Amino acid sequence: MIAAAAVGEPGKRHFFLVARGGAEEMTLACEKFHLQGLLTRARQLLETQELPAETKLRPGPGNPPVGEANWEIGELGLGYHESKRKFVIVAREIEEEGSEPATARLWISPEQVRSFTEQADAVLAGGRPTCQFCGLPIDPGGHPCPAANGSRPIF
């Protein structure tokens, strides 16, 4: 099982990639853009490989419980191994000077990828709503929309 998870209030959430298989479990901290990129690539590969869709998908775990992160993702990739007929997610830890970064390879079936894309979409959609005019997130404290001739604070 592979899933995306988010902890915290919208606008201040921390994101995780959670993998479980048998007795093993791995929680990797990541940024929202890592999950968004993984979803985009997963959809591209599913379409390119023209894999038959399973008629009944098992629903993903929603927002799974998150423990302490094993490490933080610096690089994330997704590929398809044709002879194994499986996808592989390759995650690499952020490099710190003087140490070798950890790497994880997660082998998953096309059905698991489809289930993950639906589940991760739901997790990502749980954030702040986006403005219909400019596409920027709307904060609970208000939204100075540049498309409505508002001004955005400069930091």
Description:
By secondary structure, the chain is α+β, with helices and mostly antiparallel strands. It has a single domain, classed as Secreted effector protein pipB2 fold (2-Layer Sandwich), CATH 3.30.2450. The protein is 22% helix and 30% strand. Strands 1-2-3-4-5-6 form a six-stranded mixed beta sheet. A hairpin with a 2-residue loop joins strand 2 (14-21) and strand 3 (24-30). Helix 1 (32-49) packs antiparallel against helix 2 (110-125). The longest helix is centred in the N-terminal third of the chain and has 18 residues, at 32-49. The chain starts with a strand and ends in a 30-residue tail after the last helix.
Sheet of most strands = 6 strands, mixed
Instruction: Provide the low-confidence segments as ranges.
Output: none
Structural class: alpha+beta
Percent range of helical residues: 10-25%
Order of helices and strands: EEEHEEEH
| Highest CATH level, the class | Alpha Beta
What is the second-level CATH architecture? Answer: 2-Layer Sandwich
Strand numbers in spatial order across the main sheet = 1-2-3-4-5-6
Main traits of this protein?
155 residues, alpha+beta, single chain
Short characterization:
The protein is an alpha+beta fold and 155 residues long. Helices cover 22% and strands 30% of the residues.
